[in-house]
Design goal:
This protein is an all-alpha fold. The chain is built from five helices and no strands. The protein has a single domain, classed as Ferritin. Helix 1 runs antiparallel to helix 2, helix 1 runs parallel beside helix 3 and helix 4 packs antiparallel against helix 5.
Amino acid sequence: MYRAAILTILSVPIGFATAAADPAAKPSDPQIAHIAYTADQLDIEAAKQALQKSKNPQVIAFANQMVGDHTMVNDQALALVKKLNVTPEDNPTSQTLTTQAEATRNKLASLEGAAFDKAYVDNEVSYHKTVNTALSGTLIPDAQNPELKALLQNGLTLFEAHQKHAEQLAGQLH
């Protein structure tokens, strides 16, 4: 399983849930690749939901940025795993992320208008804070392959900017 630090990504409103883990174990590079890809893909799906539901131009612009940026990072990740001939490994963390993100999407689906916009953007703030913490505290330090580590570091820089943008947008929506 995974160190306790990675489990911090399992506690935010986007639907991450805590799971038992062996604190001494570290995720492997194929597991890290799968977790990172899954986290990106889930944010793409959340943004696509916002594009379908929101009428707010600022929320739509933010969601479009999330789709574009996270797709770009996932495309880079897929190219890297292909180059390295590595198969990303599904794991309990990725599975939990997926299950809980579905619950969050269902919750957001019941909202409309300003209530949806606020909930979506608030979720994006929490999501990016948590993913950024997991990247900097666990995924990047535990990655063994230098190219994977560099890709994760570049992603972190981009996702920190996403967090700041989401925080600014959240302040405007309240």
